[in-house]
Amino acid sequence: MINPIEADKIISGILESPNESKSVEFKPSVCWPDKIDGIQQNNKVQEIIKSILAMSNNRDGGKIILGIKRDNEGKYILQGMTEDDLKTYDQDLIFEHVRNFGEPEPKFQVLNIEYNNKNFIVFAIQSFIFAPIICKNHRNLNQLEHAAVYIRTDKPETKKITDPSEMREMIDLAIEKELDVFSVRIQRIFKPMSYYVEQLKIIKPDEDKFIEELKDINFNNNDIIKKIKSRGYWEINIRPDIYNPQRIKKEEIKNIFRSALVELRGEIYPSFIDIVGSPNNIQNGIERFVNHYQYIEFWRFTQSANFYQLFAIKEDWVDGVHKKCLNVIETLFTLTEIIEFAKRLTTKNIFDDKVVVEIKLYDLNNRILIGKYYNYYFYNYKATTTEPWSYKRVFYSNDLTNKENQIIIESYLDLIYLFNWENPPVDLFKDIISKFLKAKI
Hints:
- By secondary structure, the protein is of the alpha+beta class.
- It has 3 domains: 4-162, 2-Layer Sandwich (Methyltransferase, Cobalt-precorrin-4 Transmethylase, Domain 2), CATH 3.30.950.30; 171-202; 209-437, no CATH class.
- It has 13 helices and 22 strands.
- Strand 12 and strand 13 form a beta hairpin.
- The chain is elongated, with a radius of gyration of 25 Å.
């Protein structure tokens, strides 16, 4: 369930750049009937109940936000709740109504969130615990079908399960949840004194599940990866904060990835296709190896929306000479491409509310920061750290859209700090970022 303390921040992040997804749905202001019989004549309330049932069957639940209207051009208008409609929303009353239409009863909160001096009602819906929620309709409501199982899709839309693969996915999710709970029960029976420790061992954190997707990569024996790691290199990971191995369908993964590619300076990030070929299909996604002059790279993108990448510092391989330097502008461009790629992935509605961005840069000790930009010359800034530079943030998806330039400059300044650079020209770097993103450099 959503933490009430964090509710304002989470919902405000969604409303800053409103976009529907599998776990987020918008609806206009509507009055909630004071009696359950009043729902029978109110199709809009019936649609809300249907969406509550559907999001209860999401792996991570979801949120329905009332007070948002879509105009004829498809834009979302943040109108807020009308004063009269707002008064009708009482959590106990609404829960008493909705519990009559789901088996088992769906779990949710009803929150009143203020944003830009307007009020919005938010249904924060918890995913089912043991068994999927099945619709009950003994009151002949025309928007609900008795014994139907409703789900949210990636379109996004709310629909009844009609396809065997959708039903199989729902059954698999229910089995997975039951196994998690069963494992905890076993530990409580046989190891009561170490219950909490053992529980943490059995139920793996989401981060560990993303890491497991890379275990089949032979980091020590793959020739290209060994070459990348033989000198300075970047390590990138862009992923959701919640693990779901089936976020993206196999047949859609290449198109989603291709549509997020960044081409701002005559080369594509990440490398996608060239004379050598295009990405290879693997069991749960796609991957690519590149070994072409200073372009030495490996990346993998899986159905869980987990993007992992290693690529060489280009400066270390120009003319085959290991110069151990870092170009000021090239590095700024690289960070900009990474953040821009992360932003474009968020627009595909594959991350839900949050996205994790982790960037590391290795082999910095005694590396020189140099470069030139028009009449600006940069040289002799040396890093002395023996540790890699590490930048890891969890962003609300909308932050990457609304605060992209700020995120880029903050990450860049964090990196060049290690080179003992006092008073770098921040305004110049901001201007370069802005022009680069507009492909004007």
